[in-house]
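Workshop exercise sheet. Pairs work together: one partner reads the sequence aloud, the other fills in the structure field after running the prediction. Swap roles for the next sheet.
Pair: D.N. / O.F.
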Amino acid sequence: MTEAEARKTQESLQDRLAQVVELLERYTLAGEISQAREGQPDITEAPQDILADLQQRLNALHPADVAHILEALPLEQRLAVWHLVRAERDGDILLEVSDAVRETLIADMDDQEILAAAKEMDADELADLAPELPRDVVHELMESLDAQQRERVRSALSYEEDQVGALMDFQMVTIREDVSLEVVLRYLRRLKELPGHTDKLFVVDYDGALKGVLPIKRLLVNDPEKQVAEVMASDPVTFHPDEDAYEAAQAFERYDLVSSPVVDKNGKLIGRLTIDEIVDLIREESESEVLNMAGLREEEDIFASVWKSVHNRWAWLAINLVTAFVASRVIGLFDGAIEKLVALAALMPIVAGIGGNSGNQTITMIVRAMALDQVSISNTVRLLRKELGVALVNGLVWGGVIGLVAWGLYENWALGVVMMAAMTLNLLLAALMGVLIPMTLARLGRDPAMGASVMITAMTDSGGFFIFLGLATIFLM
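Structure field:
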């Protein structure tokens, strides 16, 4: 093991980030001291030596680790590190960074640098990157490709980003079914290397139609004299390019797949799906759901400009402001009751807060179930009954607890009963809205998680205040 490999295994990613930041700070400090002592002997470490050390450390890291470091640095330091990366690694790193950070890196590159970085990419990787490149660069890049590569890029670009065709890889090893395993082994030895995540070879006929797959483990353990047709699996899990990519991801998890063929409507092999693309898809979908539930419209670079961040966040904040105003007006309807019984002002945030928490629990469960295709029209009513049952039990139990506390604090048994009833009704409202909000969004063709937490909080706040203060007005005034 080389020194660089040993360092990669022993140090955590956060340690490497800390080292990069320290070197950047040392470089800046050394430059400032050198300028201050211009014309005098410089006893500090030379800035160029620090840069050389930093560049050496970056070159020893995996592109994904460099991408993580770039994402964790402010823009000025990010670009300084980006300039130190070897040009031949630019393409690999651009594919690893988040979309928001990739935008800042591409903006710092000229057309020739972009073309040089893209030249070493495969067709599926070019298709991922192309939408973010300047139009004239994409045109020049397409002109530089051979006919087969150009057609593959156009094919990948023709699919929506949530379809299998947008994720498929064109690098794969194909063989015939009428040859021996010995012939296949000799053929593989002549290749420079196998495509990444090759756990199986694809068996096709002379027209390119898929006949089956030959797992590498079967190739290695069977008699070399056997024919491929005797050993291959003739019923592999296959996908069509226009299938939903998230359904494909579920199939990869269900069947423990590493790679799988993609065929057209005539059964012709046109590409393959690999586990690395599926993992990236799942991660991006998970991040998207978290952002959507918080009301963020898109992934945001944490070091983006103030105005760009404001633009990303303002919409749901405006909606939240409106809902908060509605909640305040609900309270205003009962100001007379609050003046007569000050305890109401102290207790009503508890009702609203518990309702919001319960609603978020329900909505998280429903959004997850919808993502896994576990929710359908046939089981919606049963699911709603179950969530209402959970809310009823929690409301009676915890409402009873807080009711006893209210009784003890204010020596008013009627206030305790109102507290328990209000909490139970608000938890039932939270459960109802927690099921209906994501399902309604899905029915309208929107992401079920889009702003869900904002909407459920608005409903439980306004509803909780109205229920609690309304019951108090009826039974305590």
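Discussion prompt: The first strand starts at residue 174 and ends at 175. What would you look at next?
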